[in-house]
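Predict the holo structure. Ligand: heme C.
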Amino acid sequence: MNKKLLAVIFGAGLMLAACGGGDDEAKDTGTTDTGTTDSTETASVDAEKIVNSKCISCHGGNLEGQGNFPALADVGSRLSEDEILNVILNGRGTMPGKIIEGADAEAVAAWLAEKK
Ligand code: HEC
């Protein structure tokens, strides 16, 4: 994971703590989980749903790939979670970056990394 990305993730976490907590001590402990921001937590993101709405137009309805678009159904056997996240955020070749971002991108990368 590159430093810029870490900074973005960390920054987002701090913002959440600042908005949701209102408690100075929460920042000092480094605790960014306020327990009230479900939609931004990776665990609650439905990666499969995101992929089905944002990625299948190119990668195929069953992620089997088509033409110049590689299959994602077995992408975990070729790329690590970090590498997948990198493709999603930065794009590669003719694949545009930033179709999804933040917790969505992370959840999808983790989900795809399991596909072997
Ligand atoms: C506009 C078409 C398009 C869309 C939409 C798209 N991709 Fe891609 N994707 C591509 C192309 C083309 C490549 C091959 C890039 C290359 O040639 O290096 C690719 C490659 C990839 C790879 C690397 C695969 C490998 O085997 O190396 C991953 C991972 C990936 N895409 C994930 C996603 C995810 C997740 C989404 C949805 C958020 C998505 N893509 C949406 C076109 C697309």
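Residues 51, 54-55, 57-59, 68-70, 72, 75, 78-79, 84, 87-88, 92-96, 99-100, 108, 112 surround heme C (CB under 6 Å). The two ends are 21 Å apart (CA to CA).
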